[in-house]
Design brief:
The chain is α+β, with helices and mostly antiparallel strands and 205 residues long. It contains two helices and 13 strands. The strands form four sheets. The chain has a six-stranded antiparallel beta sheet, with no helix packed on it. Strands 10-9-12 form a three-stranded antiparallel beta sheet, covered by helices on one side. The chain is elongated and about 50 Å long.
C-alpha cells in the first residue's frame, strides 16, 4: 500500500513538473505549453530566451524575435526578417526564407498578408497582386527599409488556406525579399500597419 502511494505521489509530481509554466524571459511571460528549457512547458513547443529576448527558431536555424503571445487563441507573432540595407535581400534569404518544421505543432496562420520584392517575371503567372496598386509599392516608396527594392517587380498576397502553411519562400531567381503584415485591411493607413508573421499552434493532447 505504501509503495502504491509513493508511486502515485511520484507520478503526480512528475506530471505537475511537466505541466509547469516556464519563468519569464526578460519582460516577456512564457505561457504553457511554450517551453524555454527541458524542465518546464512542453518540449514540442520550444522557444528560446536569448539575453532577455524571447525568440522562435525556424527549420533553417534562423532566430526571429517573438513580439507578442496570445495563449487564449494559441497564437504568437514573430518579427519578419530585415531587408538588408541598400539591397533587396531578406536577412533569411540564404535559408530560403521562413520555414517551419512540419513535425512540430506550429503553422503560419491565415491572417498574414505577405509582400514579396525583387521577383522574377515568372511570378506573374501566379494569382498574386503584382499590379501598380499593390501595397508593396507603398512600402517601397514610403518605408526606408523598402527603398532598396524600388523599381523591382513586387507583389502581395493573403496567406490563405490554399497555400502551404509552413513556409514563406524566397530565393535568388524568384523573389529575394519579403515582409508580412498581420490582420491587414485594404483601407489601413501605412502608419497603422502591423508588421509580423502570426503563427498558431495546436494545443497539446
Amino acid at each position: 500500500m505504501v509503495a502504491l502511494l509513493l508511486f502515485l505521489l511520484t507520478t503526480l509530481v512528475i506530471n505537475a513538473s511537466a505541466l509547469s509554466t516556464c519563468p519569464d524571459c526578460g519582460d516577456s511571460a512564457v505561457p504553457y505549453p511554450l517551453s524555454t528549457n527541458d524542465d518546464c512547458g512542453d518540449s514540442r513547443y520550444r522557444v528560446y530566451c536569448n539575453n532577455g529576448n524571447l525568440e522562435f527558431l525556424s527549420a533553417t536555424s534562423s532566430y526571429y524575435k517573438i513580439l507578442r503571445i496570445d495563449p487564449s487563441v494559441n497564437k504568437l507573432v514573430i518579427s519578419p526578417p530585415l531587408i538588408l540595407k541598400d539591397t533587396c535581400y531578406s536577412s533569411d534569404l540564404s535559408g530560403g526564407g521562413f520555414l517551419l518544421d512540419e513535425s512540430l505543432p506550429f503553422n503560419i496562420s491565415k491572417h498574414n498578408t505577405v509582400m514579396l520584392f525583387n521577383c522574377s517575371a515568372n511570378i506573374l503567372q501566379s494569382p498574386l497582386n503584382c499590379s501598380s496598386n499593390s501595397i508593396c509599392r507603398q512600402f517601397e516608396k514610403e518605408v526606408e527599409e523598402g527603398r532598396g527594392c524600388m523599381g523591382t517587380l513586387c507583389c502581395h498576397y493573403l496567406k490563405d488556406s490554399s497555400m502551404n502553411s509552413h513556409k514563406i519562400r524566397v530565393r535568388v531567381g524568384s523573389c529575394t525579399a519579403y515582409t508580412s503584415l498581420v490582420d491587414f485591411k485594404p483601407d489601413d493607413p501605412l502608419d497603422s500597419w502591423n508588421y509580423g508573421i502570426e503563427l498558431q499552434w495546436m494545443p497539446p493532447n
